[in-house]
Amino acid sequence: MQIGFFDSGVGGITVLYDTLKMLPNENYIYYADTSNVPYGPKPKDEVKKYIFNAIEFIIEQGVKAIVIACNTATSVAIEELRAKYSIPIIGMEPAVKPAVEKNRNTNRRVLVTATALTLKEEKLQNLITKLDNDHIVDLLPLPGLVQFAERFEFNEEIVLPYLEEQLLKYDLNNYETIVLGCTHFSFYKDIFRKILPADTDIIDGNIGTVKHLKRILEKMDAINEGDGNIVFYNSGLKVENKEKLANYGELFKRLDIINKCD
């Protein structure tokens, strides 16, 4: 059986990319809710409706596990999804815990970037309250990065001024770690690096999510020796157009470039 991946758009490709390196022989469904992206500015109840419709569709295709490769979707719906469905559903969480633990013995801060909806949701707020005893975590929404990624806009001359403007009010030398709390943001690690001090870490929750998925599959004795096939769906419509498939291919190439630079 296949593994289902869900995101509001193309951001979850960054998680699928890391999954393919760890589980290269699985078969995958990737569902991008391109008709309704972005989720971040929308009301919570509206977003929940989109999420449940997408997950119902993915399950109908026959999957053994689902990765909610979207921090916003995880924050607003993961508990209700797990209550409704019996198959494993793995969510995303901004990597606040490793960032705070790393910074605990320094005088520097942590900047968590995400969508506005993720940042204001109770799930993240509770996590920060639990971990951030020294009050070193700051929050910054970066909705423009979601819009850039959905337009396949990776031109440094366009993205860099946006990031510089958004980070202008922060003394970046005070930050030990920047947390990319939206899967779309990982497409821009190389551009973040051009702004940040050389000793500032940039982390996301992708690898932790993939390791969790692998542990669950091993526990289920459900690791397959398939052919690594990926079927793409855009809001329930199978992607068969060569140009659209090529766009997904370009995203993987973009991540190859970023990983070579890390």
Automatic annotation (TrEMBL):
Coiled coil: none annotated. It catalyses: L-glutamate = D-glutamate. Substrate binds at residues 7-8, 39-40, 71-72, 183-184. Pathway: Cell wall biogenesis; peptidoglycan biosynthesis. The active site is at residues 70, 182. Transmembrane segments: none annotated. The keyword Zinc-finger does not apply. One of its GO terms (molecular function) is glutamate racemase activity. Its EC number is 5.1.1.3. InterPro entries: Asp/Glu/hydantoin_racemase, Asp/Glu_race, Asp/Glu_racemase_AS_1, Glu_race. Pfam families: Asp_Glu_race (PF01177). Keywords: Cell shape, Cell wall biogenesis/degradation, Isomerase, Peptidoglycan synthesis. It is an enzyme of class 5 (isomerase). Belongs to the aspartate/glutamate racemases family. Provides the (R)-glutamate required for cell wall biosynthesis. PANTHER family: GLUTAMATE RACEMASE. This is Glutamate racemase.
